[in-house]
Amino acid sequence: MQNAAFPNKLLPYLLLAPQVAITLVFFYWPASQAIYQSTLREDPFGLRTSFVGLDNFRAVLSDPNYLGSVWTTVVFSLATALLAMSVALLLATAADKVVRGKGLYRTMLIWPYAVAPAVAGMLFLFMFNPAMGTFAYMLRDMGVPWDPLLNGDQAMVLVVMAAAWKQISYNFLFFVAGLQAIPRSLIEAAAIDGSRGAKRFWTIVFPLLAPTTFFLLVINTTYAFFDTFGIIHAVTGGGPARATETLVYKVYNDGFVNLNLGTSAAQSVILMAIVIALTAFQFRFIEKKVHYA
């Protein structure tokens, strides 16, 4: 039996070259520049630069506003990931039971993933706008004093709903694939043994979805940290009173709005380290509870 081999020894490197080039240009080069700039103090016009070592990191970590953004990011990320994954799992289990028109239902539930984050944010801003939003009018009619432009808690709820809605379709796609991979013989055996409804789901189906759930947990955490900038920028702009200013949005505010380039670069390095550490923690401890069949 002969081993498969490329007839051209140069071909494997040519196939890998585009991905390697993209990774170097769009990840490693910006990351190295951020680390370098985090040790500098620059004026907004880049005319004078001085090396300050770790002073930018000390200034960031002693800033009460930055520590507040850390807490805001934790709350926002946990709420977004839990809401997006819970609703997606509920929709996936419901769609898996559909017999007629199954493909149509799944296609309609996947479509929202094609919506850009900024567009998703604007949709929720229009629907829940205190002046003209339909849902805002319904909430006020129910006696709820809805005004996310002034109430920080309501603003947080609004951006969490918008961010979770954007991610539900992605989670739904993987949960459906995970449900389809579960052998029907196990479900039928559980039904014969008298295990039905919620008990069968939590004791048989959900444990078999553990690899998919763990994968989505990592993806949703990264999404909440990085990919929700457009939603927050469109809906609240980090307000009111910094109530929705997450770490990634504070990097933008300090770097592009306030032109404090050194501390902004330090914040981006800290954010990158947090995400790497969080992902490593998930793989180190949470994956132990995941069983791969």
UniProtKB/TrEMBL annotation:
The UniProt entry, under Pfam families, shows: BPD_transp_1
| Segments forming a coiled coil | none
Q: Does the keyword Transport apply?
A: yes
Q: Does the keyword Metal-binding apply?
A: no
Q: Where is the ABC transmembrane type-1 domain?
A: 70-282
TM segment ranges: 12-31, 70-92, 113-137, 157-179, 200-219, 265-286
InterPro entries given in the database record: MetI-like (IPR000515), MetI-like_sf (IPR035906), UgpAE/MalFG_permease (IPR050809)
Alphabetically sorted, this entry's keywords are:
Cell inner membrane, Cell membrane, Membrane, Transmembrane, Transmembrane helix, Transport
Where would you say this protein principally sits, based on its record? membrane
Membrane topology (UniProt):
Multi-pass membrane protein
State the compartments where it is located.
Cell inner membrane; Cell membrane
Q: Which PANTHER family match?
A: BLL4140 PROTEIN, SN-GLYCEROL-3-PHOSPHATE TRANSPORT SYSTEM PERMEASE PROTEIN UGPA
Record function comment: Part of the ABC transporter complex UgpBAEC involved in sn-glycerol-3-phosphate (G3P) import. Probably responsible for the translocation of the substrate across the membrane.
**Could you say which protein family the record assigns here?**
Belongs to the binding-protein-dependent transport system permease family.
On assembly, the entry states:
The complex is composed of two ATP-binding proteins (UgpC), two transmembrane proteins (UgpA and UgpE) and a solute-binding protein (UgpB).
Protein name (Swiss-Prot/TrEMBL):
sn-glycerol-3-phosphate transport system permease protein UgpA
